[in-house]
What does this fold into?
Amino acid sequence: MRFSLWVRQGHRWLSIAFTLGVMTYIVAMSTGGQPAAWLGLLALVPLILLLASGLYLFVLPYAVRWRKARA
It folds into this structure.
């Protein structure tokens, strides 16, 4: 399996993890009081990884065109 396919599949799973982290944080906020700081990181860590993989997937078609033009 090519690297870009692994990144695409990882990006999909990260989006699920991010959604679950946000939902957990919303539930914790709705119970009243201030949720723990580490609970906010449940959504932040996948979000950072989503940013990296999303930027890679965004640039990928342009990089392929650029390589074809140079060849």
